[in-house]
């Protein structure tokens, strides 16, 4: 899979902008708050149908404008493809694949596999469980459309059930419908839990090898999936816990409360690991995603690095860059010296200022030094 080009109009701080990518390493560089991350975000949006940053779709449209556009071209197995995104401030976004409109953004999943490394990913271990659930869901949704369908349905059920629980203060008779909602919840929750468990079982074998390599064999990293309730017990737990849920006003059991634990040499990294250990474990896990995509799709993902180099020490930077050798990568950084000082080969560089590409350099083609 090769990302060929990106064009944006009225997207974030871009009035217009275009990028023709190298098959190797591409770098967006320049001062902070100039639009480097915005360009990276547009690529991610074409793969996932949403941003990896919090906010609403209309916030992606340039201030003062009513519409925004993203056009991305890629090549898969030698066949060219095009993804078009039409953002509207007053309504639903439109997405088309090869000129054919799709009804739901989830239809994008699998067209372009993209893996993002952002600063918050390095804090995945110490942050709230929601971020670890998002990590599992982001990759699984790209790899498994059945999982995506079950997750979407489950989230709708949870939303409706929580709405019902909150309304019980005004009408207690509505509690009679809770068993019906619980039946629906179990229907979708069970396959979600099973697939998450399978995913972590697959990923942890890769992560164990990657982490051992990063730490010189001194540390063994273990990923442990922690469902809020085992799938075989969920139905009974929901039945027994109805009064607790009525009292709390929210759903207490199900995949929306799952977590993921990281252990190094048998010790919980979140509670007892150093910041360096937490970041190394997070890095090992993210790098393992690349290998898992290769195994499952027989293809290379497109890797996006959003200003993570400044968050890593020199040793972890070198390890990350060595793992990305041979993979098409798009990196944001403030200066090219952040990469070239580590003897990392940059193929193409874009200097970005105030939402514009000021300079575009084919470094390897021209024989230039970054």
Keywords for this entry:
single chain, 370 residues, alpha/beta, Rossmann fold, Glutathione S-transferase Yfyf (Class Pi), Chain A, domain 2, 6-stranded antiparallel sheet, 11 helices, 15 strands
What does this structure look like?
With 370 residues, the chain is α/β, with parallel strands linked by helices. It has two domains: 1-113 and 301-370, Rossmann fold (3-Layer(aba) Sandwich); 119-298, RecF/RecN/SMC, N-terminal domain (Glutathione S-transferase Yfyf (Class Pi), Chain A, domain 2, Up-down Bundle), CATH 1.20.1050. Helices cover 40% and strands 24% of the residues. It has helices at residues 36-48, 129-143, 145-167, 178-214, 234-240, 242-248, 269-272, 275-297, 314-323, 337-340, 363-366, and strands at 2-11, 14-20, 25-29, 67-76, 79-88, 94-97, 100-101, 114-117, 221-226, 259-264, 267-268, 302-306, 329-333, 348-353, 356-362. It has a six-stranded antiparallel sheet with strand order 2-1-4-5-6-7, with helices on one face. Strands 8-12-13-3-14-15 form a six-stranded mixed sheet, sandwiched between helices. Strand 4 (67-76) and strand 5 (79-88) form a beta hairpin. Helix 3 crosses helix 4, helix 4 packs across helix 5 and helix 4 crosses helix 8 (275-297). The longest helix has 37 residues, at 178-214. The mean pLDDT is 92.
């Amino acid at each position: 899979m090769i990302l060929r080009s990106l064009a944006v109009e009225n997207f974030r701080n871009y009035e217009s902008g275009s990028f023709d990518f190298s098959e190797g390493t591409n770098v967006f560089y320049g001062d902070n708050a100039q639009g480097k991350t915005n360009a990276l975000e547009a690529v991610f949006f074409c793969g996932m149908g949403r941003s990896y940053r919090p906010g609403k779709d209309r916030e992606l449209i340039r201030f003062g404008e009513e519409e925004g556009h993203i056009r991305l071209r890629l090549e898969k197995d030698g066949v060219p493809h095009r993804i078009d995104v039409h953002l509207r401030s007053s309504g639903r976004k439109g997405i088309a694949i090869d000129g054919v409109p799709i009804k739901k953004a989830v239809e994008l999943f699998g067209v372009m596999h993209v893996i993002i490394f952002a600063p918050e990913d390095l804090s995945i271990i110490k942050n709230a469980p929601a971020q670890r659930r998002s990590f599992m869901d982001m990759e699984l949704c790209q790899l498994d459309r059945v999982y995506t369908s079950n997750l979407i349905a489950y989230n709708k059920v949870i939303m409706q059930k929580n709405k019902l629980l909150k309304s019980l203060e005004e009408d207690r008779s509505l509690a009679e419908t809770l068993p019906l909602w619980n039946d629906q919840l179990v229907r979708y929750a069970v396959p979600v839990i099973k697939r998450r468990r399978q995913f972590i079982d697959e990923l942890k074998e890769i992560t164990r090898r990657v982490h051992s390599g990063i730490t010189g064999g001194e540390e063994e990293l273990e990923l442990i999936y922690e469902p809020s309730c085992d799938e075989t017990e969920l139905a009974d737990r929901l039945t027994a816990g109805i009064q607790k849920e009525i009292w709390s006003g929210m759903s207490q059991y199900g995949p929306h409360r799952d977590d993921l634990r990281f252990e190094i040499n048998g010790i919980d990294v979140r509670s007892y690991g150093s910041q360096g250990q937490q970041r190394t474990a997070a890095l090992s896990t993210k790098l393992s995603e690349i290998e898992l995509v290769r195994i499952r799709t027989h293809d290379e993902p497109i890797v996006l690095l959003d200003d993570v180099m400044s968050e890593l020490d020199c040793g972890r930077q070198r390890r990350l860059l060595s793992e990305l050798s041979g993979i098409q990568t798009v990196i944001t950084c403030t200066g090219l010296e952040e990469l070239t000082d580590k003897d990392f080969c940059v193929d193409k560089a874009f200097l970005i200022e105030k939402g514009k590409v000021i300079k575009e350099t084919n470094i390897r083609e021209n024989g230039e030094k970054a």
